[in-house]
Amino acid sequence: MASASSQKTVWRDRLAALRNVPPVLRLVWKAAPKVVAAGLALRVVSALTPLAALAISKWIIDLVVAAVKHPGPLPHQIWFLLGAEFLVAALGNVLGRGIDYTDARLADEFTREVSLRVMEHAARLDLESFEDPAFQDKLERARLQATDRIGMLNSMGRLLLQSITLVSLSIGVIVYSPWLFAVLVICVAPAFAGESHFAFRGYSLAHSLTPVRRELDYLRIVGSGKESAKEVKMFGLGGYLENRYATLTDGVIQKNRELTRKRLWWGSALAIIGSVGYYASFAYLVWRTLLGELSVGTLTFLAGAIAGSSNQLQSVFSLFSSISDQALFLTDLVDFLAVKPRIQSKPNAIMAPRPIREGFEFRDVSFQYPGSTRLVLDHLNFRIEPGEHIALVGENGQGKTTLVKLMARLYDPSSGVILLDGVDLREYSVEDLQREIGVIFQDFVRYDMPARMNIGVGRIEETDQDESLWTAAKKSRADKTLERLTGGLDQMLGRRFEGGVDLSGGEWQKFALARAYLRNAQVLILDEPTASLDAVAESEVFARFADLARNSTAILISHRFSTVRKASRIVVLEGGRIREQGTHEQLVTIRGRYARLFELQAANYR
């Protein structure tokens, strides 16, 4: 067992974790107030039935014993008592089933409420949070609370029921002999302490294994997923993935085995102490009955009350321990919901300008990602005029994608300021600003949803507007793919769900472009928008791009210089700064960095 100081720390942590219970109870009440109220009422009534049954049994037994000692007509009240005991038993069964029903209802409603809260809150958090592995672990544990903490709700319900039952039964024992009840409490306490200790050890182990379990999930996906199947086969990765998975699971199983083995031995020993308290009390009552100091009915009543009190004491202690330990797990859910996004609209934030009149200006902007000391953007000064078509080029890691993330306020600068029409971006409503920006990143999402949703996410309120969806599809050349799909806009895409149709990389990319066009925003940002397209499709896309974006400010990020040469201005980023900028012809003429990179690519086609 642990030292006194470590035990004190364990108890402090467990008691502190109980602060998580009230916010979760508020979630429970919000999820299903009527179901919660019904469950509470059923438990209160159900908790009083054991005492009523014992009292009726005492009267019946005393009447029977008296009738045996003094033969004569049977007392009429015995039949009423038997009927009453039957009704109490029947009521107990009905109440139990009613409680099970409300618990099942509440489990569904609570799971739904927590899942919605996690999704809603995650959508509000900063992008940088999702790029932090520690936050990913916290989010993973928070997601699990939607289902894993259903047991805590049941425990809390049982705790209420058994606490009321304990009080009612204990009153009967205390009225007869307070010290008998004290003996029961003293004997149960060690088992409670032991269960508490090992429950906390279980939480600590589960917490420490979160990164391992995330890796196990990843190995399962890589080892059996469609996306990785080709490389797993070609590179013979199956054996390695299996061995890695087996090694990790062996470690998890070993740690769990060690903990459960200790819990078995210590739990058994401490449980025996609790049994000693009950049987010592029962033996004392039998002795007093043999001496004629108690009636048989009173013996039955007290024996039942002591047995019930002993069981209820152990259950209450165990449930309290379980709740306090599960409250430790809830720390992740409560902490997750307490995380506040740094990038959010100020009170009385202003709306984005419509139309944009002066454009964007980067004024001495620097940026470094959290946890990194490298400046991705280094005191950048840069201006984008309304309606201008700009191409950002440069090698990987030079800040091209970071620049557009800052424009869209997915991040804020580490220093400096970004202005839109002369106003700091932070003064605008984040949501309204982002409505005016249509952006498709290179790692766009392939939604396993119907085709209309794969386009409609660009402007979610138009998912049922077929004409708008088809117009956007024609602009991106996704209409040809749509025409081949048997379900048209309602065709399920992807292989995750039954009836889904998978697409080529280029076809998926056209759908991503379609949602950018559907957005009909003032600023259109395309980050490597044709990376998965063949040369013909790429040529078609860019032949229409200038025309489609005529009334928009367009920013194009591409490594293919053949696609950027028509931009009104090409900006070459290097080391987080602007190395050079100008038209294609100007940059080729000065024979700088752009010209060398262009020649390298052009040489491949000669």
CATH level 4 superfamily of the largest domain: ABC transporter type 1, transmembrane domain
Rg of Cα set: 35 Å
By helix and strand content, what is the structural category? alpha/beta
CATH topology of the largest domain: ABC transporter transmembrane region fold
Basic shape? elongated
Count of domains: 3
* Number of helical regions: 22
As residue ranges, the low-confidence spans are none
Describe the overall structure.
The protein has 606 residues and is an alpha/beta fold. It folds into three domains: 18-338, ABC transporter transmembrane region fold, CATH 1.20.1560.10; 355-436 and 524-576, 3-Layer(aba) Sandwich (Rossmann fold); 445-520, no CATH class. The chain has 22 helices and ten strands. The chain has helices at residues 4-17, 21-31, 33-69, 77-124, 127-130, 133-148, 150-176, 178-208, 210-224, 226-234, 238-290, 296-338, 400-407, 430-435, 451-456, 466-476, 479-484, 505-519, 535-548, 561-564, 584-590, 593-603; strands at 360-367, 377-384, 389-393, 415-420, 423-424, 437-440, 523-527, 553-557, 569-574, 577-582. The strands form two sheets. The chain has a six-stranded mixed sheet with strand order 6-7-8-3-9-10. A four-stranded antiparallel sheet has the order 2-1-4-5, covered by helices on one side. Helix 3 (33-69) runs parallel beside helix 7 (150-176) and helix 21 (584-590) crosses helix 22 (593-603). The longest helix has 53 residues, at 238-290. The radius of gyration is 35 Å and the shape is elongated. The termini are far apart. The model has no long low-confidence stretch (mean pLDDT 78).
